[in-house]
Amino acid sequence: MGTIVHAAYTDGRKSALSVKKPKVVFVLGGPGSGKGTQCANIVEHFGYTHLSAGDLLRAEISSGSENGTMIQNMISEGKIVPPEVTIKLLEKAIMESANDKFLIDGFPRNEENRATFEAVTGIVPEFVLFFDCSEEEMERRILNRNQGRVDDNINTIRKRFKVFVESSLAVINYYNSKGKVRKIDADKPVAEVFEAVKAVFTPVNGGKVNFCIDMVGCCVGAIQLS
């Protein structure tokens, strides 16, 4: 069965991104897996701009808009927000940046997200960086991070795990069939995880590393490729 792409986003609508033509890397992994920290290291080493779908959505919630209220309700229930909401926020952030290469963290979350993003923007990712980490470890990290986020209670955490695995598996398998998935074993020690990340990005970046830092972030992910 094919994926339905929202007609309102494909009929006569040309994304500004089709003109800018940015390079995009999708970063996928389970909730609370440390994707933000790893992305910060990639930004520092390789000059990408990091766009967190979750951060953009939370900023929209904080704005007090009608969309923000809808997003808050869906996150509290462990659900995924409609793709057009996230895509609009991503488009705006990319167009406002002077950079031309981006890490999109936590998106696409499902096949509808993926198909709609590609149809609307005309952008296919350079590759997908997928961090594989056990659910037990991710749960421990979320409970220990103490960021005061309202979506971090144990029941919601487990709903988010379930949604991630059930929805994201199709996305990972789709891009894996295209040879675009770069899977990282995130259960290894932190330094080894980032060494694996650098091995992925260095060839893409023409062998250039901006500069090195001593401490690197933690890991991400939680599903098996078929």
TrEMBL record:
Cofactor(s) needed for function: Mg(2+)
| Any one GO MF annotation of this record | nucleobase-containing compound kinase activity
Q: Which Pfam families match?
A: ADK (PF00406)
Looking up InterPro entries in the UniProt record yields: Adenylat/UMP-CMP_kin, Adenylat_kinase_CS, P-loop_NTPase, UMP_CMP_kinase
What does the Swiss-Prot or TrEMBL cofactor note state? Binds 1 Mg(2+) ion per monomer.
Q: Which biological processes are named by the entry's GO terms?
A: 'de novo' pyrimidine nucleobase biosynthetic process; nucleoside monophosphate metabolic process; pyrimidine nucleotide biosynthetic process
Enzyme class comes to transferase
> Mostly located where?
cytoplasm
Q: Which Gene3D superfamilies does the record match to this protein?
A: P-loop containing nucleotide triphosphate hydrolases
- Give residues annotated as binding CMP: 113
UniProt catalytic activity: UMP + ATP = UDP + ADP; dCMP + ATP = dCDP + ADP; CMP + ATP = CDP + ADP
Where on this chain does a ribonucleoside 5'-phosphate bind? 58, 79-81, 106-109, 149, 160
Tell me where in or outside the cell this protein is found.
Cytoplasm; Nucleus
Question: In the Enzyme Commission scheme, what number(s) does this protein have?
Answer: 2.7.4.14
Q: Where does ATP bind?
A: 32-37, 145, 188
What CDD domains does the annotation carry? ADK
Sorted UniProt keywords: ATP-binding, Cytoplasm, Kinase, Nucleotide-binding, Nucleus, Pyrimidine biosynthesis, Transferase
Subunit composition and interactions: Monomer.
The record's domain comment reads: Consists of three domains, a large central CORE domain and two small peripheral domains, NMPbind and LID, which undergo movements during catalysis. The LID domain closes over the site of phosphoryl transfer upon ATP binding. Assembling and dissambling the active center during each catalytic cycle provides an effective means to prevent ATP hydrolysis.
> By its UniProt entry, which NCBIfam families does this protein fall under?
UMP_CMP_kin_fam (TIGR01359)
- Similarity section: Belongs to the adenylate kinase family. UMP-CMP kinase subfamily.
Instruction: State its role.
Output: Catalyzes the phosphorylation of pyrimidine nucleoside monophosphates at the expense of ATP. Plays an important role in de novo pyrimidine nucleotide biosynthesis. Has preference for UMP and CMP as phosphate acceptors.
Protein's UniProt name: UMP-CMP kinase
Mind giving the lineage of the organism this protein is from?
Eukaryota, Viridiplantae, Streptophyta, Embryophyta, Tracheophyta
